[in-house]
Amino acid sequence: MKLANWMSRLGTETAFEVLARARALEAQGRKIIHLQIGEPDFDTPKNIREKAKTAIDEGYTHYGPSAGLPDMRAAMAEYLNKTRGLNYIPEETIIFPGGKPVMFFTIMALCNPGDEVIYPNPGFPIYESMINFIGAKAVPLPIREENDFNFDIKEFERLITHKTKLIILNSPANPTGGFLEKDDLEKIAKILAKHPDVAVLSDEIYSRILYGSAKHHSIAEFPGMKERTIILEGFSKTYAMTGWRLGYAAGPKDLITAMARLATNCHSCTASYAQIAAIEALQGPQDDVVKMVAEFKRRRDVIVAGLNKLPGFTCQTPKAAFYVFPNIKKLGRPAKQVADFLLQDAGVACLSGTAFGAFGEGYLRFSYANSVENIQEAMKKIGEALPRLERMTAA
Ligand SMILES: Cc1ncc(COP(=O)(O)O)c(C=O)c1O
């Protein structure tokens, strides 16, 4: 079948491809350590699971409103107001089957072909994919190690033109673990004050996975910004609910109404019983989240120390999320080749930095959503494999 032209513009998320290759190797009897996918390895907290089960028995098995059940919308508004000091009303929120559809529908609802969208690079690959798909112009905002994996504010300002329609921010960030401090956000808000027609998609899905003194802030908290910001939040990471497919957005009411119209056309509504469980996630006990984050911190320290001991690797200590983005430039090989080699030879699945955009060359991304034992084993296997990579270089 001949596919439509726009399909050639659609990108992908390499983590799913590497997962499939890792599974194929496992099917041949190989042991693979999975450090490629951004998925907490914890179970969804029990109170949330129980709530879903009773919700099914209580009949939450039917269609609901496209933007979400009224209690769900009230819970999202309340949660965002509590955590960000904002004043959303339920009509300014919408639930989706995952955080990803928020990107899809925001870009679809706001951008015309030819509009410019500034997005982080390296960044979550679906941003670039969706911008290209819609026919808008993807303008990469380089995220550099020398800026602690944040961006240069002056460089950012230079990228804004009269065609800029949308800016995508992601803090805490995938794939780098980068984090925008309150001061940085304030500077960004000041620049945007000069460009009142530019909207912001603020992907805050890792807002609860923070270490040490890091405190999450949203760009929407700054004067004049809430009216043109769409916050992307979700349940996948904070509550280990990746397979439930639950995420949400908050933003101006007219945009939310447009997104609900798109939802009606696409998936009708988000699973009703899952929404009841999601309300429990936001309003119930948060102890499991706190425990999970403490465990992630322990693993972060293990993986950062392990990577820094490997020849040719240097790795910063991220303040947030559950990823590390080590520099492997000294290995003198394209990052994709190194990632492929580590999967084939060492049995360690990770991603090339270029899976997140061209500015990711020279880096690998490891997710440390795996046990300390497996992380240590992975570091050992990589250490043993690296001399073989060197010999390959010589050959
Ligand atoms: C930065 C970022 N935003 C959004 C998502 C999408 O999350 P979901 O699984 O809820 O669609 C991810 C998932 O990896 C992510 O890393």
Ends: how far apart? 43 Å
Overall structural domain count: 2
Uncertain residue ranges: none
By DSSP (H or I, 4+ residues per run), the number of helices equals: 12
The major sheet is characterized as: 7 strands, mixed
CATH superfamily of the largest domain: Type I PLP-dependent aspartate aminotransferase-like (Major domain)
- Please report the total strand number as a whole number: 12
Helix content: 40-55%
Summed over residues and divided by their number, the pLDDT gives a mean of 96
User: What is the strand arrangement across the widest sheet?
Assistant: 2-8-7-6-5-3-4
| Beta-strand residue percentage | 5-15%
Ligands bound to this protein structure:
pyridoxal-5'-phosphate
Q: What's the gyration radius in Å? A: 21 Å
Explain the overall architecture:
With 395 residues, the protein is an alpha/beta fold. The protein has two domains: 5-43 and 288-394, Alpha-Beta Complex (Aspartate Aminotransferase, domain 1), CATH 3.90.1150.10; 47-283, Aspartate Aminotransferase, domain 2, CATH 3.40.640. It is built from twelve helices and twelve strands. The protein has helices at 14-27, 46-57, 70-84, 100-110, 125-134, 153-159, 182-193, 253-266, 272-283, 287-309, 335-346, 372-394; strands spanning 33-34, 93-96, 116-121, 137-142, 164-170, 199-203, 229-234, 247-250, 323-324, 348-349, 351-352, 364-367. A seven-stranded mixed beta sheet has the order 2-8-7-6-5-3-4, with helices on both faces. Helix 5 (125-134) links the parallel strand 3 and strand 4. Helix 4 (100-110) runs parallel beside helix 5 (125-134), helix 4 (100-110) crosses helix 8 (253-266) and helix 10 runs parallel beside helix 12. The structure holds pyridoxal-5'-phosphate (PLP). Pyridoxal-5'-phosphate is lined by residues 38, 98-100, 124, 170, 174, 203, 205, 234, 236, 242, 247. The site of pyridoxal-5'-phosphate has 13 residues, from loops.
